[in-house]
């Protein structure tokens, strides 16, 4: 017969095959969560929206980026690993596409309607293009990382 009594050391440590997803139960040393939830379905649109807002696609409360365009290694709240998500040139292409489709018709409408001086027109639209690009670039990167997380597209 096997001895089924547990010692104080055995009771203090949970079994190695038990994994928690509770943020409060995450390790305090900052180690990322390496649990694989391969069977769980992930919704893409909530993850994309969380990424667009600059939040972790898993929990929605931790920051996704550690600087303007650098993805964190892991979420500080839920410990979800994020280091393997790469957006590469996707956010830049989408930014150019969106800014071009907004500013080109606006430029045409303003020029045809009011005929401003060329220097004023180029100044206003240059500032508008730069501002809109700087606003959209990190948000689109977060959206792409959120989409990759939802579809489990880790590293290429």
TrEMBL record:
Residues 21-34 have a biased composition (Low complexity). It comes from Salipiger bermudensis (strain DSM 26914 / JCM 13377 / KCTC 12554 / HTCC2601). The chain crosses the membrane at residues 92-113, 119-137. Residues 1-11 have a biased composition (Basic and acidic residues). Residues 1-41 are annotated as: Disordered. This is Zinc-finger protein. Keywords: Membrane, Transmembrane, Transmembrane helix.
